[in-house]
């Protein structure tokens, strides 16, 4: 369902929007893309699935007018009467300190159950609940955050100084990508989260945290990961019939196909994946 808003932005209507890992305040955050994406959505319910804010770290806080505009846009959704649920993540454990200040009406939770339009129940959680006890220590989050910022600044420096050929662009971004791949190796993370969903009688889990977007099945349950707004620029949406889809943002919309949608309906055999 699409129409044009007052400022001619093409708007897509969703029953629910699930968005995670914006990392507002961190070096890698892409605020312009987030703002454009939010302005192109009409939703009944928005789930902020953790790691939305990321400024409780020891490094430089990256904040601009666009970040303020994102806060204003989200607050406007609250003013308009849209339900907003904030699931805290490992980078924004202290979200309560700011979310109640920024947003007129917000529900802040560790996990929540969501009933879709087609009667399915989803457990919504950031996903760090599946990490080992050691990795859940605040120190480890800080360490990971600083390492990520260091690699990204090295990447920027190398590219700006043309130390690498164009073929090697994003050298350190590749390291981050492969680090994440190793960190979330195999499907242990996904199976633990789907088990959490099964234990509470849900039909699936919607989460973030791993920065690896995708929709797949584990043991008959649906696993949907929102991805992030640092690298993947993706979100999970529920349409008005209850179908769960993965949305991938493209910075420069092309006339023919400007976005990619992956639907729960495209799911084939067990473990078929797109990430
Ligand atoms: Mn996280």
Provide a descriptive summary of the structure in words.
Helix content is 29%, strand content 24%. With 275 residues, it is an alpha/beta fold. The strands form two sheets. Strands 1, 2, 3, 4, 5, 11, 12 and 13 form an eight-stranded mixed sheet that branches. The protein has a five-stranded mixed sheet with strand order 6-7-8-10-9, covered by helices on one side. It is globular, with a radius of gyration of 18 Å. The chain starts with a strand and ends in a 12-residue tail after the last strand. Mean pLDDT is 83; it is low at 271-275. The structure holds manganese (II) ion. Manganese (II) ion is lined by residues 50-51, 89-91, 126, 128, 209.
Record keyword descriptors for this entry.
275 residues, disordered C terminus, eight-stranded mixed sheet, globular, alpha/beta, binds manganese (II) ion, 29% helix, Purple Acid Phosphatase, chain A, domain 2
What would a concise description of this structure say?
With 275 residues, this protein is α/β, with parallel strands linked by helices.
Q: Which helices and strands, and how do they pair?
A:
Blueprint: E1 2-4, E2 10-19, H1 31-39, E3 41-48, H2 65-79, E4 83-87, H3 95-102, E5 107-109, E6 111-115, E7 121-125, H4 138-160, H5 171-183, H6 188-199, E8 204-207, E9 214-218, E10 221-225, E11 234-238, E12 244-248, E13 260-263
Parallel strand pairs: 2-3, 3-4, 4-5, 7-8, 8-10
Antiparallel strand pairs: 1-2, 2-11, 6-7, 9-10, 11-12, 12-13
Helix pairs in contact: 1-2, 4-5
The chain binds manganese (II) ion (MN).
């Amino acid at each position: 369902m699409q129409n044009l808003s007052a400022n001619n932005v093409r708007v897509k209507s969703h029953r629910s929007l699930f968005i995670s890992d914006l990392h507002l305040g961190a070096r890698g955050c892409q605020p312009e893309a987030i703002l454009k994406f939010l302005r192109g959505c009409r939703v009944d319910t928005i789930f902020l699935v953790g790691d939305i804010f990321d400024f409780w770290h020891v490094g430089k806080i990256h904040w601009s007018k666009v970040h303020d505009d994102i806060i204003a846009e989200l607050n406007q959704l609250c003013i308009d009467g849209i339900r907003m649920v904030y699931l805290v993540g490992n980078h924004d454990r202290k979200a309560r300190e700011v979310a109640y200040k920024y947003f007129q009406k917000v529900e802040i939770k560790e996990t929540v159950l969501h009933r879709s339009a087609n009667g399915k129940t989803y457990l919504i959680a950031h996903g760090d609940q599946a990490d080992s006890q050691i990795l859940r220590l605040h120190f480890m989050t800080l360490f990971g955050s600083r390492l990520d910022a260091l690699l990204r600044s090295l990447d920027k420096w190398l590219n700006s100084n043309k130390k690498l050929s164009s073929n090697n662009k994003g050298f350190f971004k590749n390291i981050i990508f492969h680090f994440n791949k190793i960190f979330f190796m195999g499907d242990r993370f996904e199976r633990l989260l789907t088990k959490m969903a099964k234990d509470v009688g849900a039909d699936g889990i919607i989460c973030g945290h791993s920065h690896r977007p995708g929709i797949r099945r584990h043991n008959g349950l649906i696993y949907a990961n929102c991805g992030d707004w640092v690298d993947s620029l993706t979100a999970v949406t529920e349409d008005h019939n209850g179908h769960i889809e993965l949305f991938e943002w493209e910075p420069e919309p092309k006339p023919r196909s400007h976005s990619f949608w992956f639907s729960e309906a495209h799911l084939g055999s067990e473990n078929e994946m797109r990430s």
